[in-house]
């Protein structure tokens, strides 16, 4: 008889046996944790405007946890809804597992439901009641497929009203929103709405994004960043080994990361390629696209003179948004496309749309747009994200750079200033890292974030983001609590309007990680200091399986840069 096909891999079976380590403060459960309120907080910017928008939830105190008997959390049965919002990140299932276990430990009658397909599940009232049997095969796994995710935003009066109705009809006491900066901005808006409506509905966020840009003093890392950067580093390390073997190609690798360069920097640390471009540095130095290309050409020529017509370049996904002239172009494009959406839709061809848009842009931006390769110009113009902005993940920046580098090298050849060969190969690593089986760090971290969120909702602490920190220490020493969502907010322009959003955390050019990078990059540029980290490790020496990102290690190191 033929052997039945196995739909669960051997690794998945073994990962199912992994037992996440909880911080000591949470090990006995929510009934032995007391929340302690700190001082009132304020937003990182635009305090007056945000205080007016969030009249009921602005200025909440920071929450820390200490050991102590807390009978409040066991006295009443509650029903909690959880929703996964935005792009996937390794560890989402463990957030749900931690939340489920935290609620059940406090009171076995507590109920957890999962809204299906992201926030649209709330609006459509589509959910499933989560049981241990259902959850068992999803613990320590990648992906969001247990309840799926989505990018619907709850932002119109009708959507808020429907959310209120559906949560009330379903007798949901609390809502946990797992997402990035935009999703948690949505959490803040829903929390404020519920307070304004005098509804006792607790809303808590959980910090999720592989981009690494949802971070601050209290949120040291967003979950998924550790696993994703290890996956990308394996791929880039393989390319480094290949290029060092063949010695005849230049690989340009674009890495996911949206509007920050944290992924590129961390993968750079792990693999030590010849060039790592960081958008934040380009912005600070007010570099033009031409200057960025000149720097690339400088390294390529120098390596060629040493007989090395090969190398590896890391390009952050959102690079073009940091180039001053491109940033101005994108800003103007966003406004033109929003203000003229109906008129643009009437044109039959892409070329007609382009000509119309060129005419609406300021002359400087119009000229720049015309100078770009046709494909890139189309991507800038036509591909928009759910917020109405340029969809940077669809813009092939690495190909734009290659085309411009080829042009400059051709000019240098005519002047007899370059005799080498330039054979480029381009890559984009993004979706490969979003649903990987979580590393030990992310498996522990996400489980703790979910359990911590359970403690917050059981104590009716609305408008908070689950905070687990001291992450360079072993998991049992991690510190837990909550920080107000409004504390991380500022005002930004979206869809042509000023809106409250959680501020993105960019690479800090005064921080230790960047300074460590600066100390090494000149050596990486000319020498072959490539590192080949291999696959994400789950079994082996603990200093490998449990290590945190180098970014975190540098940020928490005691030595001066």
Describe this structure in words.
The protein has 561 residues and is an alpha/beta fold. It has two domains: 10-224 and 438-494, Rossmann fold, CATH 3.40.50.450; 226-278 and 301-317 and 410-434 and 506-561, Phosphofructokinase domain (Rossmann fold, 3-Layer(aba) Sandwich), CATH 3.40.50. Helix content is 43%, strand content 16%. It contains 22 helices and 16 strands. It has helices at residues 10-16, 47-53, 72-75, 92-106, 120-123, 132-135, 157-169, 181-196, 225-246, 262-271, 279-284, 289-305, 324-339, 341-346, 350-360, 363-371, 374-382, 397-414, 440-458, 512-526, 542-545, 550-556; strands at 33-40, 61-67, 79-85, 111-115, 127-129, 149-150, 174-179, 202-207, 250-255, 275-276, 311-316, 424-429, 464-469, 479-484, 489-494, 497-502. The strands form three sheets. Strands 1, 2, 3, 4, 5, 6, 7, 8, 13 and 14 form a ten-stranded mixed β-sheet that branches. The protein is globular, with a radius of gyration of 25 Å.
